[in-house]
């Protein structure tokens, strides 16, 4: 029994009179006298008349190209055909629908079952039932519904089946090995998760209702309706169709022939392939959603889009009458009585003849027989799988010459886990078609990957190119030598060698060094160092001053002068970023890093205040540590190049301000003995950046040599000098510039003097059994050379050791230090002793080559010398100069 189909093969006339070459002489043209073309960035047309396009007006963005040249206009129209009036394909039943009034039902839920009848009210096979229609009838009638539910199986015989509805939901329908099976359905057709169903002799006719295939259904056969044919999910249909509207969410393998439809809509990832030459006449709209494909590289399609009103939706003037969404592909020749719009990444492989043409960025029209597209046009250097770029060779599997320039490029077919194979530049390889291929590369750059199809005789056929970006996984900024990792780690004694980059307030550029790293294969971690890589994106780098205050300086160029504001560690921070050559890196951000690259120092030091010293009394002795009641000294601070104070010069940042780098010296040009004498120094750091430099208390001692001198005034100048080599900039150390502010007076009292003191012990002669005292005097020469006794001297306060050298081993006399001498106990026998006081240097007496301990003779007489009461003690005193 034959289906009654009304087909209007109207292209046998006007259209057929023009050959494909006549209608599509170039890749793109307009048949309208006022045709407009708009091409955005990186839109490409390959196969033009020397980059000239047959359009009346055009808008070409900077990087759009025609055959690798800037596109231009001919201001003429291309060839035109007068399409005959659209007439839809129409189907009807071969006769009036053959109904039945049968009340018999065939139901089966479990086990095996069969039925030899030919007419039923309904058939329902479900769960664990395996049923068979027997009887060998040529015709079967089912009043309501034929249902095969999940778990059920129904085996049919050849013949015609007249059905109220067809509903297969997870069940299986088995057809005979030979003989035609025709379903004539008066209602809806719903086939879901039916697995493999049908053969070349299987036909479904539903003139007045929709046909819907869903889930895992794979229908082999023809499907005809005057309504909507819809394939959802992963459903597939292989065969011929008739429909008013074709809506694909799955795959249609369309048999060769001519088809007329009101509208074709391919949903995301849908596929409409052809198994023979196909002509599609579309009354209203052609719509390809994202990543969908219409046609094959080896079997292109001819499409005639009338651009009529879409009866199912409101027209959107921004959309094309033929609308190809992002990354969709069409293999064929498209004649549109209206506007063709290609969205980002969309491609036509064949030719177009339109009224208006709009091409978004990275879209393409190419006369080639295959195409190369990037499913993901960016990957990390050395990245694999999720970290790699992904390409697809659209068309048939073929042999290609691979060209990409320098470096090493390798590939792996997605899902195979077979390891990466090297593609040598310029060699020929067989690559699979319509399959995702991971691309790995070991250089950080844009790679123009060119595939050229090769004939069996090694002739070059068509070629196509895709640009892939490979970006570093991480940019590591290199730290300065001997610099700490963080501000918290900074210790001047350890990190003084951290590079000094600039003086505070000084505009100066810094030198930066970077290393780029690839990714570790499929792992999200740093891999190997990238060879010959130069990071050149200063806009992603910030120079940061690290101190109590954090100051950021975003870079615009690497040689930009930075106005450092304080004494600080200097950190370079690379932000996470898109590599500059990658148009849109998506989730392939290059990770940044940070490191301390150096530090800044003051421009100079400055005296804030100073104070003269004060002492108790009005004199000090040479050789004796000076006890200041007020220590002489200076308060200093750091300043920038403008002379402004730097509170940031504190803590570890002021670690170079130590006694080793400070000189406090007397300035007495007319006194060669004291001129230039340096003082012991104490440094007191302050958190506000003001630091006190003092003469250390109880450590200053004027030199005492063997030659006495007259008393000297010590109301003399004290000069401060500072030079810190470790804080040098351009070999210029950090200094306190010499001026009048760096001088102060050692002792404020104008009469304070330095004396050369000597402790003198007088000889003593005593009678036996008599006590006595050896007088002790502290003597000095005043400013006029007169020998003076110091009336304030108290021997008992001094740490002195009395040494007695007996004569002939006699018993030693008892000796006691008192305020003004050495008391001697009574001694029973006549004797003579040398009494020596082991004292501090400032009390020692002069000698020819060295200072000497003071000494005297103690004589004990036997009483033969008559003495009066007041003459019982005899002593001798001698002054030495």
Task: Outline the structure in words.
The protein has a 16-stranded parallel β-barrel with strand order 15-17-19-21-23-26-28-30-33-31-29-27-25-22-20-18. Strands 38-40-45-42-43 form a 5-stranded antiparallel beta sheet, with no helix packed on it. By secondary structure, it is mostly beta strands. The chain has 6 domains: 1-88 and 244-368, no CATH class; 96-222; 373-471, Immunoglobulin-like, CATH 2.60.40; 474-601, no CATH class; 604-755, Immunoglobulin-like (Sandwich), CATH 2.60.40; 757-876, Immunoglobulin-like. Mean pLDDT is 91; it is low at 1-14 and 865-880. Residues 1-17 form the signal peptide. It comes from Oceanisphaera arctica. Residues 495-878 form the DUF6701 domain.
How do the helices and strands line up, and which of them pair or pack?
Elements: E1 4-6, H1 20-23, E2 28-30, E3 36-39, E4 44-46, E5 52-53, E6 57-60, E7 65-66, E8 72-73, E9 90-92, E10 105-115, E11 119-120, E12 122-133, E13 139-149, E14 153-155, E15 159-169, E16 172-174, E17 181-185, E18 189-192, E19 196-206, E20 211-214, E21 218-225, E22 228-231, E23 236-239, E24 241-242, E25 245-248, E26 251-254, E27 257-266, E28 271-274, E29 278-288, E30 293-294, E31 301-305, E32 322-324, E33 329-336, E34 339-342, E35 347-354, E36 356-359, E37 364-366, E38 371-376, E39 378-380, E40 389-394, E41 398-403, E42 409-413, E43 421-423, E44 428-431, E45 436-441, E46 445-454, E47 460-471, E48 474-477, H2 492-495, E49 500-503, E50 507-508, E51 514-520, E52 523-529, E53 541-546, E54 550-554, E55 562-563, E56 569-574, E57 593-601, E58 604-611, E59 614-615, E60 619-621, E61 628-630, E62 633-639, E63 662-666, E64 681-684, E65 690-695, E66 712-713, E67 717-729, E68 732-735, E69 743-745, E70 753-755, E71 757-761, E72 763-767, E73 772-781, E74 787-789, E75 801-805, E76 815-817, E77 821-824, E78 831-838, ...
Parallel strand pairs: 2-35, 3-6, 3-36, 4-7, 4-37, 5-8, 10-12, 11-13, 12-13, 12-14, 13-15, 14-16, 15-17, 15-18, 17-19, 18-20, 19-21, 20-22, 21-23, 21-24, 22-25, 23-26, 25-27, 26-28, 27-29, 28-30, 29-31, 29-32, 30-33, 31-33, 32-34, 33-35, 34-36, 35-37, 39-47, 49-57, 60-70, 72-79
Antiparallel strand pairs: 1-9, 38-40, 40-45, 41-44, 41-46, 42-43, 42-45, 46-47, 48-51, 50-55, 51-52, 53-54, 53-56, 56-57, 58-62, 59-61, 62-65, 63-67, 64-65, 66-70, 67-68, 67-69, 71-73, 72-80, 73-74, 73-77, 75-78, 76-77, 78-79
